[in-house]
Amino acid sequence: MIEAVGLTKSYGKTLAVDNLSFSVPTGRVTGFLGPNGAGKSTTMRMILGLDTPTGGSALIDGKRYRDLHQPLRTVGALLDAKWVHPNRSARAHLQWLARSNKLPAKRVDEVLEIVGLTAVAGKRAGGFSLGMSQRLGIAAALLGDPQVLLFDEPVNGLDPEGILWIRKFMHRLAEEGRTVFVSSHLLSEMALTAQELVVIGRGKLISQSSTEDFVAQATENTVLVRGPQLGHLRTALGQAGASVRDEGAGLVVSGMDCADIGELAARTQTVLHELSPQRGSLEEAFMQLTGDSVEYHTEIADAPTPATLVPAGK
Ligand SMILES: Nc1ncnc2c1ncn2[C@@H]1O[C@H](COP(=O)(O)OP(=O)(O)OP(=O)(O)O)[C@@H](O)[C@H]1O
Q1: Residues lining ligand 1, CB < 6 A?
Q2: CA distance readout (Å), 37 to 13, 156, 196
């Protein structure tokens, strides 16, 4: 379990993390979301003892990172997949890490196997694709068989196969009872990967909840109704207290579920071509809840989409 209590970090006049409190539970994948500059990397660095808080604390299983006896046995992290000597082989890189952290040498082949790099273990890490480098970074994070894992943007730049592999892998780690804390800009991916969310904006906590609750609290559930003649149904829906708006060739109904709308359609002898619940997306919820905390708004007049908040290469 990871716990931040009143965590604060200022760089001169910039308050990067502002009195942030949250907890990351075991046995779940927890997504860490926030607009650019929200303070995610700073928070992760403080959890890992790479940055010193100006105030508050970040604890892993109740201890500060620097008080952990053998840190790699407690917490593993992937912050930068390219942090590898390019001329070292994958195996030599992991052997060096294992040796310098007093971890058993036999664990190197185990983690290579776990991440599927056994066949290329003797090859130069400098020639690895991004996907292979990510796997090597994850192997390094797993060396000490830690219960707590942090991943900063692990799917950045990966192809769909690599993204799917990481998603399944994180679920597997959580099912093994580990704490998995992962930051990402790819909201559609996070919607599939993260069961819990910690969302921050301008260094402050915006929300901590399950992914499902986060989306439900910020977006409206509606029902899309399509059919050749919807006039009678529209009137009946209004009389029954639902609110209805036209969208394209159909109606978007709120305040009534599919079953009740179907009953009403039967009573008004309305032919339906579609009757489908419309759930809000994580993107919509994110924009709704973090809108005020975006550091740099787009100049484009249209409503910003999450993609416009993401600098190229992120
Ligand atoms: N070493 C530093 N010195 C000065 N300011 C910093 C430093 N590191 C981060 N900041 C500032 O702190 C704020 C939070 O940055 P941080 O990188 O933690 O955000 P982030 O949520 O990880 O952003 P991104 O999604 O863009 O990576 C930003 O305003 C950033 O400019």
Answers
A1: 11, 14, 16, 34, 36-42
A2: 14, 17, 21
